[in-house]
Specification:
This protein is α+β, with helices and mostly antiparallel strands. It has nine helices and five strands, in the order E-E-H-E-H-E-E-H-H-H-H-H-H-H.
Length: 212
């Protein structure tokens, strides 16, 4: 039986999948594990009553597992790993935090209005650390096989590429060749192509935060 999954809808058209990287992470996990699912697109500006009934906090994503609704992408992916252990997406503990600071560094730089505040260099430093790791351990975080760390990073790197390219005309430095190859590898996977939001939806999602 297919799992019911509630994910963010596009703000301007609730019939289309929206720009939430955490929602995409859950869909990527389901796709990579070949677990059947049915999506409910949730308009976060006008949440349906049934959704608030099963999920009072109103956050997405949430998934129904064994008649219980589970929230938070970290918890959801852990529950899915326990229920569907094959193929395993569990990373070794020594790589579980690789790239974990990239998203916050990206958001800080994206929202920055001061070119001299160091936020660009902070992001480059985090991407350089990822590049160094991939150089010795790639092509994925844990070598040849994709793992949950990759599935958490993929949507965030996609948002980074799309949003910074649009709002700041910025791209990942060419010198970080392993990161470039990694992004191409992730973005070309069938699971990613099937679950990614359109670039214009990512841009529309970040616009209010950038222009605040």
């Amino acid at each position: 039986m297919a799992h019911e999954v509630c994910v963010k809808a596009f703000v301007d058209d609730p019939s289309i999948f929206g720009d939430c990287p955490f929602s995409q992470r859950v869909l990527l996990t389901l796709e990579e594990k070949n677990v059947p699912y049915k999506t409910h697109l949730i308009n976060v500006n006008d949440k349906p009553q049934w959704f608030l009934g099963v999920n009072p906090e109103g956050k997405v994503p949430v998934i129904k597992v064994d008649d219980e609704w589970v929230a938070d992408s970290d918890v959801i992916t852990r529950v899915l790993e326990e229920k569907y252990p094959s193929p395993s997406l569990v990373p070794p503990s020594d790589v579980s935090s690789v790239g974990s600071k990239i998203f916050s560094a990206f958001v800080t730089f994206l929202k920055s209005k001061d070119p001299s505040d160091g936020s660009e260099q902070a992001l480059v430093d985090e991407l350089k650390a990822l590049d160094d790791h991939l150089k010795g351990h790639g092509p994925y975080i844990n070598g040849e096989n994709i793992c949950s760390v990759d599935l958490a990073l993929a949507p965030k790197l996609y948002h980074l590429q799309v949003a910074l390219g649009h709002f700041k005309k910025w791209t990942v430095p060419e010198s970080l060749s392993h990161v470039h190859n990694y992004m191409k590898l992730l973005f070309s996977r069938e699971s990613f192509v099937k679950t990614k939001p359109a670039p214009e939806h990512v841009i529309a999602g970040w616009a209010p935060k950038v222009n605040a």
